[in-house]
Every structure is written in structure tokens, then in C-alpha cells.
């Protein structure tokens, strides 16, 4: 029987890992229609909902993260959950061994990468952030390539690691969005894929102050799953007479980006890259305790081009945020200039660059088609 070439994408947990994984799968299928793509994820991750909804084939592992966990939980993960997951993965490969595994980060990535290395399957890692995480820095030397979402990450990875700056791969529908000014102006709020408490509290407060000064604008606010925060933010916008949509999660991010003039956001890697490709002017509030301060490094990639401003969470009061929003949202010329600057920093050819890296390790014939 003819055996189709197979790509396995391992990782997930939050949107910052799942969304680029989906974008990569779509791109790979488009370039190589015969390629079989499967995923390895965690039962607790966002992928457990999103991938089956899309009809994707996914092996979901019973795994917990170790970030912020106590030592007992860490030991349990490292000595029990990780080896068990590796065995589960290797068993699943008895029938359908992949030709290449891409580790996109998150809980399930480590198990997938470990299983692939043990089975001598080529591994490519994908680091989305401008400051690479410990796992990629450590495992990188055992893998064929490490694809970098931001060029700045390169200087933080050891010399024994083969890195390729590809940029972050953004879903095609978001690539097609184009920034345009609206009247009245529209403010977007995005606390990453899980919401951000500080934005849920401070942005409605700042908006209330602006409304009291007679400013007219609308708000779309993605707040995460915290029901109490959603209710409180809605009440604040209503009291100020602001037309606002507050939602826990948005499944239509292209419309979200199309519908805004300025975004206040956390600076997760994909938020920053999506803002760049859609030309979205931004006020970023980096997560202060992100590992190695990676959210600040991500934000600086756009701030350096002039398309974004970075606001410190420690100094983020309603007044300070209101002043920053005021300075941008009601100045069409400034917004347009910021939009041009974000676009100039956009990873426009990340898709091709990532596929070119994968092509080095997939079984392809001379015409670049996958071969059985
Ligand atoms: C708290 C935390 O650990 N955050 C990390 C996590 O962020 P997080 O998961 O928030 O990731 P990003 O900001 O990088 O990306 C969020 C992704 O989810 C999508 N999205 C978001 C909200 C929504 O309602 N709908 C939706 O589809 C966005 O379009 C984007 O594709 O992974 C990132 C990438 O490694 C890191 O930079 C962040 O530091």
C-alpha cells in the first residue's frame, strides 16, 4: 500500500502555540496536498477544543504544565507524566510514524520532541518569542533546526543550535486584513488568548475618563473566561455610555482586527505578529513575570519601528492609560503613521520560509512534491 508522507505538529496549551500550529498545518497542506498532518496536544490545552472542531487528527495527552507549580507537582510531571506521554506517543506511531516532527512549544511539545528524538525522527523546533524559552534553548542542539519568530531571538540561542529566522506564521485570513480608520474610532482590547486581569480593570476605567471628557469611540474587548471581569467591564462601559462588546474569546480574529483603529494588548508573540501584519497601531502592556521578560522583547520589535508604544504594568493607572489612548486614538494622522510602521515590521513571508525549512526534511521528489 502506498504510504503518504507525514508531518506531526506537537504542542499547544495557549493560543500563542495553537494558532501558529494551525497556520503551519494549513500552509503545508496547501503546498503539499498529499501530506498527512497530525497533531499532539494536551487534554487541558486550547487545542483539545479547537483541533477536533476543525476535524484535525490529534493525540491528546494527560499532561500538566510545570510553570508556577510546586516541587511535588514538578516531580510528578517529570518522572511520571512525561515518560508516560512519550510511551503513549511512540505506541501511536507504531501504525503511522511521522517523517518530521515540529515542536511548537507548550506542554505537549516536550513529550513530542522527546518521543521523536528517541525514535530518530527529524525534529524542527519553532520559537515564537523574541526571547527564546529555556526548553528551546536546551533542546535546540539536538534538533535539526530552530525556526525563530523574531530575529532578535537569534542572539540568545547558543552557537551549537542551527537557527533560521522565519518570522511568525500568521493565519491567512488575518494576513488579508487591512487597517483602516473608522469614525467614530474603535478601540480593541486583547489580553492574549486567556485575557489579562490588568487590562480588564484598567482599560474600562481609562475609557470612562475619556468618555467623561466628551470623547466618542467604541470598544471591542476580549477579556478571557473570567465571568466576573466580563460583567464588571460591561457595567463600566455601560455606565460611561460607551458602545462596547466584551467577550471571553473570539473565534473570528480577522473581523476583530479589521474592526479596530488602535489596540491595547498584552504582547504575546502572536498578538504582536498579527498586529504587525494587519497594520494595527498598538499600546502594549507586557506581562511582567513572563519568562525572561519575553513579552517586553516581543513588544519592542514593534515599538522599535514606531508602530507601538510599551506601557509598564507597574505604572499602569487609569489616568496613564487614558492619556496614552487619547494621544493616539483621536489623532488620525498619528494612527496612520503608526499603522505604516507596524506593517513595515510584519513577517510577510514567514509562511514560505517555514515551509522551506520543513522541505529540507520531508521526503520530496525533484519537483518538490512529497513522495511516498
Ligand atoms: C500568559 C502567557 O503565558 N502568555 C504566552 C502565550 O500567550 P497567548 O496564548 O496569549 O499568545 P499570543 O498573544 O502569542 O497569541 C494569542 C493567539 O490566540 C489568538 N486568539 C486570542 C484571543 C481570542 O479571543 N481568540 C484568538 O484566536 C490570537 O489571534 C493569537 O493567534 O504564548 C505566547 C507565545 O508563546 C507568549 O508570547 C505569551 O507570553
From TrEMBL:
Ranges for domain Glycosyltransferase family 28 N-terminal: 8-147
UniProt key word Protease: no
Pathway: Cell wall biogenesis; peptidoglycan biosynthesis
UniProt xrefs under SUPFAM superfamilies: UDP-Glycosyltransferase/glycogen phosphorylase
Localization of this protein: Cell membrane
Catalytic activity reported: di-trans,octa-cis-undecaprenyl diphospho-N-acetyl-alpha-D-muramoyl-L-alanyl-D-glutamyl-meso-2,6-diaminopimeloyl-D-alanyl-D-alanine + UDP-N-acetyl-alpha-D-glucosamine = di-trans,octa-cis-undecaprenyl diphospho-[N-acetyl-alpha-D-glucosaminyl-(1->4)]-N-acetyl-alpha-D-muramoyl-L-alanyl-D-glutamyl-meso-2,6-diaminopimeloyl-D-alanyl-D-alanine + UDP + H(+)
Swiss-Prot/TrEMBL GO biological process terms: carbohydrate metabolic process; cell division; cell wall organization; peptidoglycan biosynthetic process; regulation of cell shape
Family: Belongs to the glycosyltransferase 28 family. MurG subfamily.
This protein's name: UDP-N-acetylglucosamine--N-acetylmuramyl-(pentapeptide) pyrophosphoryl-undecaprenol N-acetylglucosamine transferase
Taxonomic lineage: Bacteria, Pseudomonadati, Pseudomonadota, Candidatius Mariprofundia, Mariprofundales
Amino acid at each position: 500500500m502506498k504510504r503518504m508522507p507525514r508531518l506531526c505538529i506537537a504542542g499547544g496549551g495557549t493560543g500563542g502555540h495553537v494558532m501558529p500550529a494551525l497556520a503551519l498545518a494549513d500552509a503545508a497542506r496547501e503546498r503539499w496536498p498529499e501530506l498527512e498532518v497530525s497533531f499532539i496536544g494536551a487534554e487541558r490545552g486550547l487545542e483539545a477544543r479547537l483541533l477536533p472542531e476543525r476535524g484535525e487528527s490529534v493525540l491528546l495527552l494527560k499532561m500538566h504544565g510545570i510553570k508556577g507549580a510546586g516541587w511535588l507537582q514538578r516531580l510528578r510531571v517529570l518522572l511520571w507524566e512525561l515518560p508516560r506521554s512519550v510511551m503513549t506517543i511512540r505506541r501511536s506511531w507504531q501504525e503511522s510514524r511521522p517523517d518530521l516532527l515540529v515542536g511548537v512549544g507548550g506542554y505537549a511539545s516536550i513529550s513530542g520532541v522527546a518521543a521523536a528524538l528517541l525514535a530518530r525522527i527529524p525534529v524542527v523546533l519553532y520559537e515564537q518569542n523574541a526571547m527564546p524559552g529555556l526548553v528551546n534553548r536546551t533542546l535546540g542542539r539536538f534538533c535539526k533546526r530552530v525556526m525563530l519568530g523574531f530575529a532578535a531571538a537569534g542572539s540568545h540561542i547558543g552557537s551549537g543550535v542551527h537557527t533560521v529566522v522565519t518570522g511568525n506564521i500568521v493565519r491567512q485570513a488575518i494576513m488579508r486584513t487591512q487597517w483602516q480608520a473608522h469614525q467614530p474610532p474603535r478601540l480593541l482590547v486583547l489580553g492574549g488568548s486567556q485575557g489579562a486581569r490588568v487590562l480588564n480593570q484598567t482599560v474600562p476605567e481609562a475609557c470612562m475618563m475619556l468618555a467623561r471628557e466628551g470623547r466618542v469611540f467604541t470598544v471591542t474587548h476580549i477579556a478571557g473566561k473570567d465571568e466576573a471581569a466580563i460583567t464588571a467591564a460591561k457595567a463600566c462601559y455601560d455606565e460611561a455610555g460607551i458602545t462596547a462588546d466584551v467577550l471571553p474569546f473570539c473565534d473570528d480574529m480577522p473581523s476583530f482586527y479589521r474592526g479596530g483603529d488602535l489596540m491595547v494588548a498584552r504582547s504575546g508573540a502572536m498578538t504582536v505578529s498579527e498586529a504587525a501584519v494587519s497594520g494595527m497601531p498598538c499600546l502594549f502592556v507586557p506581562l511582567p513575570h513572563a519568562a525572561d521578560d519575553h513579552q517586553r522583547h516581543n513588544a519592542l520589535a514593534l515599538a522599535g519601528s514606531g508602530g507601538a508604544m510599551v506601557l509598564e504594568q507597574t505604572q499602569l493607572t487609569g489616568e496613564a492609560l487614558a492619556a496614552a489612548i487619547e494621544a493616539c486614538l483621536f489623532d488620525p494622522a498619528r494612527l496612520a503613521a503608526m499603522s505604516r510602521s507596524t506593517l513595515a515590521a510584519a513577517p510577510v513571508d514567514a509562511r514560505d520560509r517555514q515551509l522551506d525549512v520543513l522541505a529540507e526534511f520531508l521526503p520530496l521528489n525533484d519537483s518538490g512534491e512529497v513522495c511516498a
